[in-house]
Specification:
The chain is α/β, with parallel strands linked by helices. The protein is built from 14 helices and 22 strands. It has three domains: 199 residues, FAD/NAD(P)-binding domain, CATH 3.50.50.60; 124 residues, 3-Layer(bba) Sandwich (FAD/NAD(P)-binding domain); 111 residues, Enolase-like, domain 1, CATH 3.30.390. Helix content is 33%, strand content 24%. Bound molecules: flavin-adenine dinucleotide. It comes from Litorivita pollutaquae.
């Protein structure tokens, strides 16, 4: 038995960041992880491996579609899928080992195994019970499915199975046009699969800015992804080698079946709290199965905190990390804060899609007077030079004060460009502040400045 100031359960981006920050703030800290490696969903089966696959398949796409235009001739590369998975695994390993190194460097004890909380202030792993002044639950989430759809990770797969397939399937059906479905769907499309996405709503990536949704779907269609929208999947019948997906169109209730070699279920994720013993402790939960916390990540049980995917809010690694850092500050007796109004969301397809703050639809609904500054990447010299002129930056600002309220980007480097606006929003900047900031030429970021100019007297290159 050991005594700690803090024990963190789960070593995903929420948990490992909380552990490191607790240690940096002088607390004696341990982090329990049941998986063989650190880094959670994000590093092992989420953000990082999916980005490795997106990168590799994007390189192939560039070689097939753009190399010849630039005078780069020759046979385009063929896919050695086994090697691609090995590259993905190596990328993952480099990152998970990096967290191990950071734990050692910061003197965070890594307790290996699955934790339960037998009583407030206690964490049990195997036969060992450890005492902790405070416990942070950062146990993350797991893929969820639909009624009538059983995931076997071979023919009917979750995102985890999609990162481990033995070969590129000929025909893939993706259920759900959210971020994960579209990212992995576009990976397999580029690798040669026929990909059909079935979505219940009439738009892709529900919740995003409407104009971005339309442009995004159009671009993905151009890349060859097929969409069946407004369709409720009724069930998936799988054999050892094939599957049949039955869906009903909402508009006329007609039922259709499509065949696939592999069905990727990307209908969302649910909080993971199995085996922790939260019910016996009397921990309050939300209706959606998340751990209920106050503004400082405290649950209703004294000394028990929760962060990341297991609580409310967007299921994003950086949201979990921010909560981890802030919660550590609270445990150390300091002030911890997360600005939930400025959490960017990025889709790492090509082109990338990124957004922060309010959408136009939200502003309309709130009855807020706003103005829109929009700039197409077609007017950006750098974007045109790299065949990335499709897409735009859309900046939303308060009509009277000019304060930046939100930004939505579809185009090259969107995932990096958005952070300029995140900083602007944190500082309460106006669109004019962004417009008057000198931006290097030729960069994609000039498109952000032009959108800010368009909120005022007008963009120069549009
Ligand atoms: P997790 O990362 O889920 O970590 C929780 C850890 O707790 C796990 O390792 C688990 O083994 C461990 N654990 C659970 N119970 C116990 C227990 N009882 N004892 C010990 N250990 C336990 N987010 C982004 O921001 N950007 C992206 O590009 C992105 N891409 C994604 C792609 C995919 C395919 C998926 C699936 C997710 C993606 N996400 C992305 C989401 C991101 O992975 C999660 O939001 C993030 O990992 C949540 O972090 P967390 O620390 O809350 O939990």
């Amino acid at each position: 038995m050991a005594n700690y100031d803090a024990i963190i359960i789960g070593a995903g981006p929420g948990g490992y960041v909380a552990a490191i920050r607790c240690a940096q703030l002088g607390l004696k800290v341990a982090c329990v992880e049941g998986r063989e490696t650190l880094g959670g969903t994000c590093l092992n089966v989420g953000c990082i491996p999916s980005k490795a696959m997106l990168h590799a398949s994007h390189m192939l796409h560039e070689a097939e579609h753009n190399f010849a235009k630039m005078g780069l001739k020759g046979k385009s590369p063929s896919v050695d899928f086994k090697q691609m998975l090995a590259y993905k695994d190596e990328t993952v390993e480099g990152n998970t080992k990096g967290i191990e190194f950071l734990f050692k460097k910061n003197k965070v004890d890594w307790i290996k195994g699955w934790a339960t909380i037998p009583a407030a202030g206690q964490v049990k792993v195997g036969e060992e019970v450890h005492n902790a002044k405070n416990i942070i639950v950062a146990t993350g989430s797991e893929a969820s499915s639909l009624p009538g759809v059983e995931i076997d990770e071979k023919i009917v797969i979750s995102s985890t199975g999609a990162l481990e397939l033995p070969k590129v399937p000929k025909k893939m059906v993706v259920i759900g046009a959210g971020v994960i479905g579209l990212e992995l769907g576009s990976v397999y499309k580029r690798l040669g699969s026929d990909v059909t996405v079935i979505e219940y709503m009439d738009v892709v990536t529900p919740g995003m800015d409407g104009e971005v949704q339309k442009t995004f779907q159009r671009m993905l269609k151009k890349q060859g992804l097929e969409f069946i929208m407004g369709a409720a999947v009724q069930g998936v019948e799988a054999t050892k080698t094939k599957a049949k997906v039955t869906y009903k169109l909402k508009k006329d209730d007609s039922e259709t079946t499509v065949d696939a070699d592999v069905v990727l279920v990307a209908t969302g994720r649910r909080p993971y709290v199995d085996g922790l013993g939260l019910e016996a402790l009397g921990v309050e939960m939300t209706q959606r199965g998340q751990i209920k916390t106050d503004d400082h990540w405290a649950t209703n049980v004294k000394g028990l905190y929760a962060i990341g995917d297991v609580i409310e809010g967007p299921m994003l690694a950086h949201k979990a990390e921010d909560e981890g850092m802030a919660c550590a500050e609270v445990l150390a007796g300091n002030h911890g804060h997360v600005n939930y109004g400025v959490i960017p969301g990025v889709i790492y397809t090509h082109p990338e899609v990124a957004s922060v703050g309010a959408t136009e639809e939200q502003l309309k609904e709130a009855g807020r007077a706003y103005k829109v500054g929009k700039f197409p990447f077609m007017g950006n010299a750098r974007a045109k030079a790299v065949f990335a002129g499709d897409g735009f930056v859309k900046l939303l600002a308060d009509k009277d004060t000019d304060r930046v309220l939100g930004c939505h980007i579809i185009g090259p480097g969107a995932g990096d460009l958005i952070h300029e606006i995140c900083v602007a929003m944190e500082f309460g900047a106006s669109a004019q502040d962004v417009a008057l900031t000198c931006h290097a030429h030729p960069t994609f970021s000039e498109a952000v400045r032009e959108a800010a100019l368009a909120c005022g007297d007008g963009a120069i290159h549009a």
